[in-house]
Amino acid sequence: MTTTQHSMEHTAQALVASGKGILAADESTPTMAKRLAGIGVESTEPTRRAYRELLFTTEGLGDYISGVILFDETIRQRCDDGRPFAEVLSAAGIVPGIKVDAGTKPLAGFADEVVTDGLDGLRGRMEEYVSLGARFAKWRAVLRIGDNRPTATCIEANAHALARYAALAQEAGLVPIVEPEVLMDGTHSVERCAEVTADVLRAVYDHLARHRVRLEATLLKPNMVLAGTDSPDQADDEAVAVRTLEVLRRAVPAAVPGIVFLSGGQTDEQATSRLDAINRHPPQPWELSFSFGRALQGPVLRAWAGEDANRAAAQAALVNRAALNGAARYGSYRPEMEASSA
């Protein structure tokens, strides 16, 4: 094993350390504008920078957060004292990462299906992100369940792009987080979600193998297996856990060190409770962790409301939410902890 491979494997293991998970703070500028609009705040570069500084300078964040995924704008920003955000995170024992995809584009010839863009020039961008302090990367693919969707072509196109990205990331010395998200939107059953998620994951790992990606230096960021948001038959947390683990054990190689679930459209409490239910089924071949965006940041935005006077309350909300998810890593989260933390 080369020194670079050893370093990447060490980083991957650090990102799924016991009791910790990843904060996804990689919202694009348009997405961040929507989040800020929800609390009545205009999205400007200084406002976005101030909000991200609030997140990254939270005392005690490193007790529950192992890594933070940054956006291109964010990895170039600095705190008021001049320190780059990546440096601030590293000093707190948190691994800086970077979102490298360019969002989704329509898949030509396939109505209502998309493929993720951003492979052009990615090798050069990876090298720059390494120089800016990044130690891992993330690329998101999006697949929708519907009438005759996703098609085999859509699954293959996104799996191929994920594998090419992952190979380029490892070439640059970055740990790739591979994120094939099967969206919650729709009326589909939990059984249909399980079927599609398994098909997608099998295709992804087939393409990763073809591109000689070292699985020990990767992480998987999948959806949990859930019924569509408009389905009348919603599964309870235990059923979600069982279905999710069944799919993962059939489709994800044991060489992968960790699985960091996305929160998708779940509420803060749902994401935490379901992660907890999943972790009550040991042993599994991988660490089962989280890489949450909205499910960690929602309480922070509401507490902050764009007011500097609310900074301490917002940071307390972040630590509380992170701690609850840290407990879910051990399967020791309880619903009554929500009231005590509030």
UniProtKB/TrEMBL annotation:
One of its GO terms (biological process) is glycolytic process. It holds the Pfam family Glycolytic. InterPro entries: Aldolase_TIM, FBA_I. Pathway: Carbohydrate degradation; glycolysis; D-glyceraldehyde 3-phosphate and glycerone phosphate from D-glucose: step 4/4. Keywords: Glycolysis, Lyase. GO terms for molecular function: fructose-bisphosphate aldolase activity. Its EC number is 4.1.2.13. It is an enzyme of class 4 (lyase). It catalyses: beta-D-fructose 1,6-bisphosphate = D-glyceraldehyde 3-phosphate + dihydroxyacetone phosphate. Belongs to the class I fructose-bisphosphate aldolase family. NCBIfam families: FrucBisAld_I (NF033379). This is Probable fructose-bisphosphate aldolase class 1.
